Amino acid sequence: MSSAVSEDWIARPGGAIGGRLQVPGDKSISHRAVMFSALADGVCEISNFLTGADCRATAAAMQAMGVRIDTLSERHLRVHGVGMRGLKPPTTTLDLGNSGTSMRLFCGLLAGQGFELTLTGDESLSKRPMRRVTDPLSQMGARFSTTEAGTAPLTIHAAAELSALDYVMPMASAQVKSAVLLAGLYADGCTAVTEPKVTRDHTERMLRGFGYAVDREGSRVSLSGGGQLRASNIEVPGDLSSAAFFFVAAAIQPGATIRIDNVGINPTRVGVLEVLRRMGAQVEISAQRESMGEPVATVSVTGAPLKGIEIDEDLVALAIDELPVLFVAAACAEGETVVSGAEELRVKESDRVATMADGLQAVGIEAEARPDGIRIVGGQIRGGEINSHGDHRIAMSFAVAAQRSIEPIVLRDCANVATSFPGFLECATQAGLRVEPLA
Ligand SMILES: O=C(O)C1=C[C@@H](OP(=O)(O)O)[C@@H](O)[C@H](O)C1
Ligand SMILES: C=C(OP(=O)(O)O)C(=O)O
């Protein structure tokens, strides 16, 4: 699904950062919207759907399993739900491109369908660990084949019956939690997941929005199998993870303000705003409302001289995808920022501890990669060349960093930005960043 052609960008220093923006729909919510509406009893409309390659891969996989999806306009889908048992075996392997969320959630959702299918992905996804889902799902009676390393290509074999599981999850992962809960929809009895840290809870909120009872007691989430999903329309909020690039762009420019309307502020996702506040930026939230159980608001961030802080594992889980760009904020802050409890960053689209430490060093910042995080000493960004290793969030993070650089930053391998943020370059230009394809 992701482009095989490498795409390079150049980001130049300066630029008048500011203004009022909209960002595309939330990636996590768009995946779940298309998955759950495909299994609902009836027709669902999804507005502000993210058209990034990751979510298109999820929609294409559902179509390959017999779900009719009409594109009413670019970001507006009508999904004709087939009911919990209505999916058909696909006739080909399902290519999920760069998307870890698609692969892991599908493992759970498809484990109990009673047919066999194979999931593949691009080079990055083919390296990512899948045993974290296949292990607990196998305990429920699901059967998988993977490579010896536990990676994709991954075949889900037809399983007779799934049994419920009470799972104490060893890592803080919303994808693993969701995979087990989604398999639990097809299991006999009550399936529960206890999470070591709070992780994003979009699965729980959206299942409830579709009329499915999900309970939470402390850190334990549970549901009973055998129910139905009631068709419901979904308006996807703007993606806070995409907005984060512009919030950091403002935060590192004293006096600059970026305001983004209609952005999701689910409490399990707002670590980025808390980190920026603690570093000294001003964060304001207004016009708050709810959309299918998800809080949405206008968020504005105003820059100030930032200071380095400690970011521990509680905050890490609430800001997991925003950490790369927060490392750029740390590079522009006075003093040291130390991030710990972030080993999960090493198993994303790239090893984000290593790619960020290498990139920061390449542009003149002192950064020390640690097994579970990073230490960054704020300083002057000098410019140079970084390799994003095909990781969308790394490319966008250094596009933001260039603003405070002396020389331009050349960004290698940026095509995968389209997996999560189609239109990033236009949006960045609107926000005042000076980034464009390298001629
Ligand atoms: O559930 C989700 O939608 C996601 C969960 C997180 O991954 P982990 O569950 O691996 O932490 C996050 O990094 C990813 O971008 C989206
Ligand atoms: C980690 C990410 O996504 P995924 O796991 O779905 O590939 C991300 O978008 O930063």
Q: What does this protein look like?
A:
30% of the residues lie in helices and 26% in strands. With 439 residues, the chain is of the alpha/beta class. Strand 8 and strand 9 form a beta hairpin. The radius of gyration is 21 Å and the shape is globular. Shikimate-3-phosphate binds next to helix 5. Keywords: Amino-acid biosynthesis, Aromatic amino acid biosynthesis, Cytoplasm, Transferase. Its main location: cytoplasm. InterPro entries: Enolpyruvate_Tfrase_dom, Enolpyruvate_Tfrase_sf, EPSP_synthase, EPSP_synthase_CS, RNA3'P_cycl/enolpyr_Trfase_a/b. Catalyzes the transfer of the enolpyruvyl moiety of phosphoenolpyruvate (PEP) to the 5-hydroxyl of shikimate-3-phosphate (S3P) to produce enolpyruvyl shikimate-3-phosphate and inorganic phosphate.
